[in-house]
Amino acid sequence: MYYLQLNQQKQVLSRTKPFTIKGFTFQTLKSSNLTYSGTEADAIYSYDGKGYREGVMVRELTPTEIANKHKLFAEVIEFFTKYKPYSGYKPIQYATVWNDATPAIYMEVERSTSKMYIQSLYDDKYLYTHFIMTDLDIKIPSKELRDVVQYAENSNDKEQYSKRMAGMSAIPKGMYERSTVK
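Now predict its structure.
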């Protein structure tokens, strides 16, 4: 679970309800009634509310992505940056966050009339993306929306400790085809 101070965690949980899919539990805004569309391998659970839209997208990883998971977050950032409906071609702020043993990429972009809060994480088979897109005049503070999106629990975390290592941002020699690390 994403590390939040106890008061922050209580505040997030007071505004949210759990939404569980394939071993991950996300916190969604209490007013969001997510509806399902899509297929087992490529689905979106979404809700259009007054002043905001929230959703959880799930898609199956391709064999190439499974073989190259070290490139997955860079590809997610590139996708959101280059896809005009999401980024409006505006700069995206992003950071790596940890939900216990599960790494995730968090992104935020302010567009001309809205702001998006996005977190993507993955397991051995699927990529999960939780997002909230709000009008700029929404009354919920940005910090709270960010905390809601970043809050995720993985029921398989115990298995992940043996698969994840600290220092994921280091580039081991030979990891990339054109590595400049000598």
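Confidence is low (pLDDT under 50) at residues 165-172, 178-182.
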